[in-house]
Amino acid sequence: MKAYIKALAYYLPETIITNEQLVAEFPEWTVDKIADKVGVNNRHVAMNETISSMAIRAAEKLFQENQDIMREDIDFVLVCTQSPDYFLPSTACLVQNALGIPKTCGAFDFNLGCSGYEYGLATAKGYIAAGIAKKILLITAEAYNKHIHPRDKGNRTIFGDAATATFISKDGFAEIGDFILGTDGSGAENLIVKTGGMACPDKANDLEFDENGNPRSSDYLYMNGAEIFNFTLRVVPKMVRQTLEKNSLSNEDIDLYVFHQANSFMLSHLRKKLKISEDKFFINMAEIGNTVSSTIPIALKDAQKAGLLKGNILIAGFGVGLSWGACTLKVE
Known about the structure:
By secondary structure, the protein is an alpha+beta fold. The protein has 9 helices and 15 strands. It has helices at about 20-25, 30-40, 50-65, 90-100, 115-130, 155-160, 225-245, 265-275, 295-305; strands at about 5-10, 15-20, 40-45, 75-80, 105-110, 135-140, 160-170, 175-185, 190, 210, 215, 220-225, 255-260, 310-320, 325-330.
């Protein structure tokens, strides 16, 4: 049974943090340094918004832009987030109720970051193939800025908040191909918020600052940039080659590569390592930043608006977990 992406939409929070604002807080930086280092000029931040409210806004936009998609026909809701409204209930339940989706639908959250969109597509395709569902609403919604310490200039320059909605069914504009998925939990502590879960429910209150004034605390997002970079260069090229092979395609057959928009430095290294031409490598993070699980669906929507979604597309996500996933999309 084939599965297709039929429609995409996304929502960006109203509050925008510019490089100029960050430089005012961190005078040791310059606007040009931030833009050159991470490739981001602006990022949207969810100040008084929750994951469910952003998810609802993205889904409502999808319905508004696609009058032939009826919420009463949806029979499954998937929500990918690492910033849920509550430990319980599932944010997907809140979204189902707020959107007026029938009570006969299934709904659950799954906790993944940068590879979450691929895992969501894989789950949706599997449910359609198994006859469990026919019309699936896949939501990605993330607010990493709620996890970041205010003095963490490195992560604050990179991450933006966003939500996306993807409608997946037995027909659509992009056929979902075969997947390569992977996990290496031995690297879990390289990208982590240690406290707040059941393993460490209480705040550690262990904030320290290194010699460069960068904060380190179990209560906030920690990212070992060097280790994540090394992991990416080690895993992603192999994943791309395996995805091409599994889908009986070559590099020359791919019309557009859409990778997780981690940062411009990392994307540049990956593109060169894989010998992908710049005209086939889509980057759109300058005005929104790294929105974690939402980067790829936002990029797909922007590429669609620009008339670039045609032929064979390869999408690839990688990061927190450590986790990775890729697949192809065939656009008629």
